Protein: Heat-inducible transcription repressor HrcA
Organism: Gemmobacter denitrificans
Amino acid sequence: MTESSNLLSDLNDRSREVFRRVVESYLASGDPVGSRTLTRDFSEKISAATIRNVMQDLEYLGLLDSPHVSAGRIPTQMGLRMFVDGLLEMGSVATEDRERIDATLGENSPDVTSLLDKVGSALSGITRGASLVLAPKHEEAPIRHIEFVSLAPGRALVVLVFADGHVENRLFAPPPGLTPSAMREAANFLNALAGGRTLSDLRGSVRRDIELRRREIDVLASALVDSGLALWEDAGEVSERLIIRGRANLLEGTAEAEDLIRIRRLFDDLERTRDIADVLDLTEQGDGVRIFIGSENKLFSLSGSSLVVSPYMNADRKIIGAVGVIGPTRLNYGRVVPVVDYTAQLVGRLLSDRSRG
């Protein structure tokens, strides 16, 4: 058991109810919660003085904090973690939210990136936070078709069409003296080999197949295939996989200079987040939603934000991407968690269907 789980089990019913009400009120309003506020709708008739004593005990335990002298209390990061792990009542996805997500994914987007861009916009709109969507790495996506296009002497284009509809165009210098027939021959040769393979699979087998079928492919076509392979090996990750939408939502209702500095730092962190492996590292402990509160979030240097993130999987149950929501630590977790979970599952199913299509 974690430290927060042990603390929760040690609290008596009154302390647990006071703590739960403080956190729920804070998450709803963002304001410190005073003892008189709690006495109005408490389940038992107890005085404000008694509630103040309970709140002082919870503060001593590190679960609540007083932002100002004589003000009410707010939950600490440890308190929020304990609430999320042990007391959070998870709602179901509201019909309106579900319909909005379904409509986005139901659009016939030409490629995966534009589809996931729309998913991110819908997520940020629903949650009023910033959305994070990690697109699949197309190195591991099945290929549907490969085409070579001559642009000018010494310049050509290789067009890669993946099974999920994603298209990549890469410029390269073809071998000297290349003829249109050699380009067609090279494309036919690669398409015959591709047959649903990924780029990674194709790299490993093409040169071996060229040696085995040397008489079926002429020297120029063979040189073109080699040029294409070199291009794929050196290109790295050519498209941006991390899609962030709704940054402006984090500024709504923020007037304090300290909060503005914190959010500006978050924006800087988002711009610098190029090592997208970090995002998948956050979800490596299996499928399902994970919640990172404040400084638990290793992706950003900021301690004043929360990240709710869930991986999505392909048809082989392999994690290929992630969706999430970034917001203040007083995020409406009960609403955001089911929305992120639903979206991740839907994206995974849709991409799996596209790959099979």
